[in-house]
Amino acid sequence: MSHVLTAEGSSIAMNGSHEARVWSALPTKEQRPPLTPKELERKIGSEVAKIGQGRAFKNKWIVKEGDGLVRLTESIDDSTQKDMREVDSTGTLKAGEKALAELRKRKLIVPKKGQWFTVHKGSNFSTSTAKPETDLTVDMLTSTPAREVQDTFYLSDPSTSLPPPADYYARVSKVHEHGGFGSSGYRAPWSDAESRKLLLRTHTTASSAAMLYKLAARCRGEDDLEADALAAHSGTTRKGKESDGGDGFRPAKLFSIDRVFRNETMDATHLAEFHQVEGVVADRDLTLADLIGFMRVFFKKMGLENIRFKPAYNPYTEPSLEIFAFHPQLRKWVEVGNSGMFRPEMLEPMGFPKDVHVHGWGIGLERPTMIRYGISNIRTLVGHKVPIENVEKSPAVRF
Amino acid sequence: MPTVAIDKEDLWDRLGHKYAPEEFDRLLFEFGLELDEDTTEEVEAAKKKGLPAERPQLKIEIPANRYDLLCIEGIARALRVFLGKEKAPLYQLIYPEGGEDSLITTTIAPETKNIRPYFACAVLRGVTFTQRSYDSFIELQDKLHQNICRRRQFVAIGTHDLDTLEPPFSYEARPPKDIKFVPLSKTEIFTAEELMVAYESEKHLAKYLPIIKDSPVYPIIYDSTGKVASMPPIINSEHSKITLNTRNIFIDVTATDETKIEPCKVIYPDGTTRITPDLTYHPMTAHASYVNSCTGLSVDSSELAKLLERMTLTASLDPDDADAVAVQVPPTRPDIMHECDLMEDAAIAYGFNNLPDTFPPTSTVAQPLELSKLSDIVRREWALAGFVEVLPLILCSHEENFDWLNRKDDGNLAVRIANPKTLEFQVVRTSLLQGLLKTVRENRSHALPIRIFESSDVVFKDRKRERQAKNVRHAAALWCNKTAGFEVVHGMLDRAMQMLDVPRIESTDKKSPTGYYIKERDDPTFFPGRAATIYYRRPSASHSGLAHIQRVLSITDDEEIGVLGILHPSVLEKFEITYPCSAVEFTLEPFKTNAHEIWTNAE
Question: Which residue ranges does the record assign to the B5 domain (chain B) (predicted)?
Answer without folding.
Answer: 279-357
